[in-house]
């Protein structure tokens, strides 16, 4: 299992989240359009982040980052990627609980 796609996805997701944070789009009141955020298209990682409810549509094509949801998920993302890295290095893959 290669970690390259996961690392790329995590990096892009972090950049998208950073854009929202830098521009202050973190609540329904401060939500912005994609143009205001400098995001050229709503696809890929953006769609996944929206599906996970990290990015929320506030109406009128405005979006904001649910910072608490994003922060809460950060620990899970790091844990999953470290576990995958250890599997790659060791060659031992988790097949579920040991009998």
Structure description:
The structure is a single chain. By secondary structure, this protein is mainly alpha-helical. The chain has 4 helices and 2 strands, in the order H-H-H-E-E-H. A two-stranded antiparallel sheet has the order 1-2. Strand 1 and strand 2 form a beta hairpin. The relative contact order is 0.16.
Compile the SSE list and pairings.
Blueprint: H1 4-23, H2 34-37, H3 45-51, E1 55-59, E2 62-65, H4 67-90
Antiparallel strand pairs: 1-2
Helix pairs in contact: 1-4
Structural descriptors:
mainly alpha, 4 helices, elongated, 99 residues
Short note summarizing the structure:
With 99 residues, the chain is mainly alpha-helical. The chain has helices at 4-23, 34-37, 45-51, 67-90, and strands at 55-59, 62-65. It has a two-stranded antiparallel sheet with strand order 1-2.
Mean of residue pLDDT values: 77
- Describe the biggest sheet? 2 strands, antiparallel
| Integer count of domains | 1
Distance N to C terminus: 24 Å
Total helices: the number is 4
Helix content: 55-70%
How many E strands? 2
Structural class based on helices, strands and sheet pairing: mainly alpha
Work out the strand percent. Answer: 5-15%
């Amino acid at each position: 299992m290669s970690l390259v796609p996961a690392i790329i996805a995590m990096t892009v997701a972090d950049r998208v989240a950073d854009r929202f944070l830098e521009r202050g789009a973190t609540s329904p009141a401060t939500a912005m359009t994609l143009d205001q955020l400098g995001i050229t298209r709503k696809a890929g990682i953006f769609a996944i982040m929206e599906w996970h409810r990290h990015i929320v549509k506030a109406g009128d094509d405005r979006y904001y980052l649910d910072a608490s949801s994003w922060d809460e998920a950060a620990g899970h993302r790091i844990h999953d990627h470290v576990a995958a890295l250890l599997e790659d290095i060791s060659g031992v893959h988790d097949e579920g609980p040991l009998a």
